[in-house]
Design goal:
The protein is built from 14 helices and 17 strands. It is α/β, with parallel strands linked by helices. The protein has an eight-stranded mixed beta sheet, with helices on both faces. The protein has a six-stranded antiparallel beta sheet with strand order 13-14-12-15-17-16. It has a three-stranded mixed beta sheet with strand order 4-6-7. α9 packs antiparallel against α10. It is globular and about 75 Å long. It binds aspartic acid and magnesium ion. The site of magnesium ion has 4 residues, from loops.
């Protein structure tokens, strides 16, 4: 039995026709030794530009919307010429691109007239990127003699709820349909080539799995077909121990655990959605990050076990896109404070990145995504400060959250002291600390201007 793998190509790996041809060549070669399901993201920054089409339409700016659609049409037609050699196949792909972009032009024109783009329409507009790129990829494979079959996410079997913009697959129905439909194609010797990111609700209306959702498409398929591995092809050699723009000595991680990957995803590593990891984790399917620009590199494997040789800490990541709120109350009124603050967050559907409470329970600090600051401040002022009478709310927007991540911290004493010694030696003040009891992650908050230096200091202390 040949091993089954699911290969997903990201937008930068499909940035133009040459790159699509290159990626298709990797697939054609690999098919000699394994079975594959291919998942494609949209070309380059197409999705961002489709969002701009939606924005223009919602403001009634039909001209701008249409202009962008036409640019996209030309770019995709150019990519067809570069990627698809066989004349008949190319003609088929070109007429697909023309027909789909004409359809998109109509959608954009109608939405502009209405000056309204609902979430549902936005998903429809966004879906064109993957449809176009995947069809071109399909054409490139056909030209190379591969018996490829083009499928949209919904056709392949991904059925979601109606949460347009960030829909949730309905399991186990999705797993069953994917298994039946793709399984049938595979057993007939065909190679399914599936649009990432897009799916359909129960009525067949197009939905999307949220930005970066193509990875999730890949792990859902792997889960459903019990694939042996998922390969996420991108433009870097793998997940890194830090942002190389900040830490020059950052290293590619050879092997990390699913849990470490989840912690890293929270901090935006490789733009992985957290839920991408879950189907793979559930079935113990390794996820490999590979570089189309350097296919010989091993990449990073996300799997059950971690690389012990690397020591206690794998990565030092940070995000500036946070703010910290501290609520101080009356000691005597005690315990109720945290519960109230968290209730407000819950009500506003804001998930805090970090929480810390003083022992006296007279104050609690929370770290939030920065764009949520204002609505949370208003909520807390209304529901907590007003109610408590005399409470105090402190807002810091100029902070960054740093996470030190690694399985090896579990049960290893002294990690925290090394982290904070490294930071203290640089004279940097730590505003807040949190360590989950999973001991996978020590997180702390510093002023934004100190973030780079703090990250470098901790990275040097543990990784080099
Ligand atoms: N094309 C979509 C995006 O840019 C989905 C993806 O790339 O995974 O968000
Ligand atoms: Mg993309």
């Amino acid at each position: 039995m040949r091993e089954l793998q699911v290969w997903k190509f990201g937008g930068t790996s499909l940035g133009n026709g040459e790159l699509i041809r290159n990626a298709a060549k990797l697939v054609a070669e690999a098919l000699r030794t394994r079975d594959l399901v291919v998942v494609c993201s949209a070309m380059g920054h197409t999705t961002d530009r489709l969002m701009a089409v939606a924005d223009a339409a919602s403001k009634g700016d039909a001209q701008k919307a249409i202009e962008t659609v036409r640019e996209l049409r030309e770019e995709h037609l150019k990519a067809c010429r570069e990627a698809v050699d066989d004349v008949d196949v190319r003609r088929e792909v070109e007429s697909f691109v023309t027909a789909r972009t004409e359809e998109l032009e109509k959608v954009a024109t109608s939405a502009s007239l209405l000056r309204e783009v609902t979430e549902r329409t936005r998903d429809l507009i966004a879906s064109f990127g993957e449809r176009l790129s995947t069809k071109i990829f399909w054409g490139a494979l056909r030209s190379m003699g591969v018996d490829a079959v083009y499928l949209e996410g919904g056709e392949a079997g991904i059925v979601t709820d109606d949460a347009f913009g960030n829909a949730n697959p309905l399991m186990p129905l999705t797993a069953q349909l994917l298994r039946e439909r793709l399984g049938k194609l595979l057993s007939d010797g065909k190679v399914p080539v599936v649009t990432g990111y897009i799916a359909a609700n129960r009525d067949g209306v197009t939905t999307t799995l949220g930005r970066g959702g193509s990875d999730y498409t890949a792990t859902l398929i792997a889960y459903s077909l019990d694939a042996k591995e998922v390969w996420l092809w991108t433009d870097v050699d793998g997940m890194m121990s830090a942002d190389p723009r900040v830490v020059r000595t950052a290293k590619v991680l050879r092997r990390i655990s699913y849990e470490e990957a989840v912690e890293m995803a929270y901090f935006g590593a490789k733009g992985l959605q957290i839920r991408t990891i879950l189907p793979a984790k559930e079935k113990g399917i390794p996820i490999r990050i590979k570089n189309t620009f350097n296919p010989g590199a091993e990449g990073t494997v996300i799997c059950d076990s971690t690389d012990k040789e690397m020591g206690v800490t794998k990565a030092v990541l940070f995000t500036r896109n946070v703010s910290m709120l501290t609520v101080k109350g009356d000691v005597l009124k005690g315990g109720a404070l945290s519960a109230r603050v968290l209730a407000v967050l819950e009500q506003l559907k804001v998930v805090p990145l970090m929480i810390s409470q003083s022992v006296s329970s007279a104050s609690i600090s929370v770290v939030l995504p920065r764009p949520m600051t204002d609505i949370v401040v208003r909520g807390l002022e209304r529901e907590v400060i007003g109610e408590l009478g005399g409470g105090e709310l402190e807002v810091e927007r100029d902070v960054a959250a740093i996470a030190v991540i690694g399985e090896g911290m579990k049960g290893t004493p002294g990690v925290a002291s090394r982290v904070f010694t490294a930071v203290a030696e640089k004279g940097i003040n730590v505003r807040m600390i949190a360590q989950g009891s999973s001991e996978l992650n020590i997180s702390f908050v510093v002023k934004e201007r100190d973030a780079d230096e703090a990250v470098r200091a901790v990275h040097e202390a543990f990784i080099g």
